[in-house]
Each structure stands twice: as structure tokens, then as C-alpha cells.
Automatic annotation (TrEMBL):
Annotated keywords: Cell membrane, Membrane, Transmembrane, Transmembrane helix
InterPro entries listed in its UniProt record: LrgA/CidA
Membrane-crossing segments per the record: 28-45, 57-80, 86-109
Protein's name in the database: Holin-like protein
Length: 121
């Protein structure tokens, strides 16, 4: 299982290096995960090579969220000053996302119905 973790960490580190070299606007860890996804999707890397490590990480995911949660609780006083603004933005962006998604889906369904004729089931 150590070899599986090593594969995941090396791919993640390559993503970090690529982000630094090409000055990408996304975090290096995200580009590393995208690289891992691409390698798995195009079957360059077999899932069996990292499956046990991935299962372990998924089973223990809550442990990895503890430090950010503790930091959030420590910084709660900062959130209290802008709590109404934060709640408004959360509600507004959620509703906006739902509306845009609904309009997009309706458009795509209508487009497909025109292309193939009749309703789609």
C-alpha cells in the first residue's frame, strides 16, 4: 500500500510542479488531482495500482477535514462580522446556480427534441 500512496503523491507533486512552471491559476494540488483523473481515464494508470490507498483515503476522509474545521471555529469571530453578507451570498449564488442549470437543461432538451422530433423519454 505504500507504493500506492507513493504513486498518488508523486502525481500530485507533478501537478504542483506543473502549476509553478506554467504559472497556472489553479492550486497545484488541484492540477495534480486532474492529472491523476486524466491518467486513470485514459487508462495510462490502472485503478488497481492505487485502489487500496484510495479506499483508505475515502474511509478516513473526515480526519482530513478536522484541521480546517478547527481553524474555522477559531476564526468564528471574523465570520460574525459579515455573517449576513455571507448568508446572502450563499443563498443568492445557490439560487442563481439552480436557475441557470434549469434554463440550460430546458434549452438542451428543446434542442434535442427539435433535432430528433417528438419528446425525449
Amino acid at each position: 500500500m505504500i507504493q500506492e500512496f507513493l504513486i498518488i503523491f508523486i502525481i500530485n507533486y507533478i501537478g504542483i510542479i506543473l502549476t509553478e512552471v506554467f504559472n497556472l491559476p489553479i492550486p497545484g494540488t488541484i492540477s495534480g488531482m486532474l492529472l491523476l483523473f486524466a491518467l486513470l481515464y485514459f487508462k495510462v494508470l490502472k485503478l488497481e495500482k492505487i485502489e487500496k490507498a484510495g479506499d483508505f483515503l475515502l474511509l478516513n476522509m473526515t480526519i482530513f477535514f478536522m484541521p480546517p474545521s478547527v481553524k474555522l471555529i477559531e476564526s468564528l469571530y471574523l465570520l460574525k462580522t459579515g455573517l449576513l453578507k455571507i448568508l446572502f451570498l450563499l443563498v443568492f449564488t445557490t439560487l442563481l446556480t439552480m436557475v441557470v442549470t434549469g434554463i440550460t437543461v430546458q434549452y438542451l432538451i428543446e434542442r434535442k427534441e427539435k433535432k430528433y422530433g417528438g419528446s425525449i423519454n
